[in-house]
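pinned: reference chain
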Amino acid sequence: MRKGIMVLAAITLAASVLLIAGCGPAKPKEKVLGMSFPAADHGWVAAVIYNAKKEAEALGVKYILTTGANPNEQSAKVDDLIAQHVSAIVMLPSDTKPLTPAAQRVLNAKIPLIIFDRKVELEPTFYLAGDNAGIGVNAAKFIGDKLGGKGIVVSVGVPAYGSVHTERVNAFKDTMTQMFPNIKIAKEVGAENSSKEAGLKIMSDLLNAEKHIDAVFTIDDELSIGVLQAISESKRKDIKIETGAGGAQEYFNAIKAGGPIALASFLYSPLMVKDAVKYAVDIMNGKMPDQKQVIIPANAVTKDNVDQYLDASSPY
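pinned: its structure tokens
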């Protein structure tokens, strides 16, 4: 009987040791960065995706990158990232309002949310973008000064781009009204997207509708390339100025080449996403930035300084 008690005690002791060992320090969970982008419908988004991957790899962080061809698909992909319990999410919303519920679900899951470029209708953990309003303001000043405060202008945007479109176009119109009251914005139109093809189509329609145009404001460099092509093919001589935004090398080359139309761009580089990825990695590692948002200035690119922005190796 005593021997049986001793065997039972030994078994109990061994089980206790195993239980205690099982309650020891758990292996730290591997941190994974989630990234959610629209599908690359034009070069700027393609360059954003390219640079986001390169930065994550340079930082040595494991990542899952998803893209969506439309807001519904992007929302579903965000839910997939949440289900995989990623440590933080960098999101470039394809549109402001439709992606807001997905952004809210990220925050509800206690996952840090870093919004890049287009806004959502809530306050994320961190926000990083270029100066969208600054693009509109600076373009208005450039056009207004070049026209000497008088003339007829048209505005070409992309309404589907949500806050990016709204902020750039509204700032352009407001600045024109305040600083150049004798410049008339004859028409404000919206392209389907910011591709060269969309720019060519919508500017061709504008040229047929408007008998005289002095300057064209667009919200995107690639859009501007198509606009410039439409003007060239029309043989119109009245248009003196065109502005874009972003950082497309093809448009920069057109600026450098010069010609009868004064061209300018305002920086909104896809390289900015590298900073968004850096901040996301810091945040998921417990290092919160001092501020909740970073806005990168929309510096002007003109024939006078375009050489410093030309980069033959750029994918955009």
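why pinned: The first strand starts at residue 32 and ends at 38. The radius of gyration is 26 Å.
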